[in-house]
Batch of 2 targets.
Target 1
Amino acid sequence: MKKYILKSGVSIFWTRKTTIIMFVLIMIIGCNTKTKQNKPTALSASEVTTTETGDGIKNIKVFYQEGKYGGWPANWGAWNWDNEILVGFTVADHLDTTRGHTFDVGTAYTKFARSLDGGLTWSLEDGYSKGITESTFEHNLGEKSEESISLSEEIDFTNPNFAMTFRARTLLDGPSSFYYTYDRGKKWTGPFKLEVDFEDRRPVGIVSRTDYIVEGPHEMTAFLTVGFRDNNINWREVACVRTIDGGKTWKHLSWVGEEQVNSIMPSSVRLGPSRLLTTIRQTKPPKMVSFLSEDNGITWKQQVNPVLVDSNGNPPALLKLKDGRLCIIYGIRKKETMPDGIGMYVAYSNNEGRSWSNPELLRGKDGAVWDIGYPRAVLLPSGKVVALYYYNNADNGDKHRYIAATIFQP
């Protein structure tokens, strides 16, 4: 037996039995640490490899976890307040399959990631604990799910810490609900019913993601995806709606595009006091289309298609830049579609969408397979853009899908 005196002045006696006890304690602590590491976590830039190209483009992992699937920021939305960014997405268990997305749909739930430094580092937040309390097809809550109610008080859309999100319970039949926050998503209020009278047409449900333009304290223009059925045929169309009473009621202004053409997931900007531009994902066949309204959403005229897309299409993320140009960010899912293959791309317009530049590769040639895209994007005070999307490097040996950010100067 040996006697040791610690710096604190405490004496301890070390025996063979003490050694065995210390070994057991170390093993227990080690096991607990490994258990914690298996929980889904957001990754800071110091914990992952941040790749930077010669032209200053930075690619950062926002959420990555072995055994997990991270997907579809466009299904939730992204918001920013100067350099603070919040993005929503889905996390689920990874599922090895050769058909469709590699996730177990029954384990899907909602997460948020927040950055306080313009997208360089991120922290993870739980959707349910922040107030996202209604089950959807990608947010499985079981008996904890709460039913949506009618909104009774007007929302102040101009609150400096405001954000809003629309969520569909199913992909065709709906219904959809919405939530809002006055504290940058630290706590969401809702769910509230999203109800619109579409007059002479009878859709089966509203199946919206998030696409809105704040017009005033209680006025907002929103672009909704709406589902239809006719015997064995089903499709979706985009509707432009507006509220002037803080979200309590919504007036249908117009349908955007042709009837019975599957059109979903719009991304829209205001060009002037009465001019709106929306870009829309179409499928069967895949197209990216755009429409201009010069009477504040009452009628629409189709513009040139901004970019070529493939597979089943990919939703756009449309932004108006500080210099007045527009940029559109999207994913390409087939190698043969573009000379640079599968990846995330950007194109620009300097004439409000009448024509577009040749697409430029933002992220690619790094082993990604088709399961990528669904971007949202925000504009920073510096003029840089942060694009958020889901991605993978499966052909380079990593099968997991994850949430990524690309920061670039347009």
Target 2
Amino acid sequence: MSSPSRPAAESPTLAETAPSAPIVLDVYFDFACPWCYIGRHRMQRALESRPHAAVRLRWQPYQLNPGMPRGGIDRRSYLIAKFGALERVAHILRLIRLSADNESIPIDLDRIPRTPNTLDAHRLTHFLTGRGQPAEILIDRIFAAFMVEGRDIGDICVLTELAEELGHRPDMVREYLVSGADSGLIENRDHAARRMGVQAVPCFVFNGRYALSGAQGAAAFLPFIDHPEIYDGEIITAEEISGS
């Protein structure tokens, strides 16, 4: 994947016409990542500013902490272990809050008691989207449960409740989550992302060729949306990404 110089704006852009094929945008993310949450909102604003652009989203699981205990760990202990001194932790949290507040993105990190293992949240996303659940609605609900409500999204009971809110049978969801099904699939996709060079999230990959890393502002997406002529037409398939 490469990060080319951004094409200069032209008028009209190809995104204002009807492109022959959609741009495939793979979004590598983790539910425990505040910058993924903020980046998802920024990406959405970019897409909403280009209503005629044909963009197909594919959500790709990534675990920031693949070795996290299944029950998660105390949030304060996790942050100190990851970032060091409490002063540094406080600085990073202030930066996240400021970034969210400046764009009216709801967030309440103080309500989060534990940093979760997100494997089951990714499994639930795979399971329900495979049964017709719109991915963005489910992903936004899980994000909000964690980032705004402080709920433990590593808890099967919490995930089952979220699925039920969206109209899914709780007994079916709980049975799936308890079974451990598709854990290997999610882990393989995580490993495949790392082999491709994804070292941090969020990471947005356009047509399997151009990567935009980090919670970039909405404007950073527009050259890749407005100028689909930069792509060579070869799109990496979901099977190639997952390694299956």
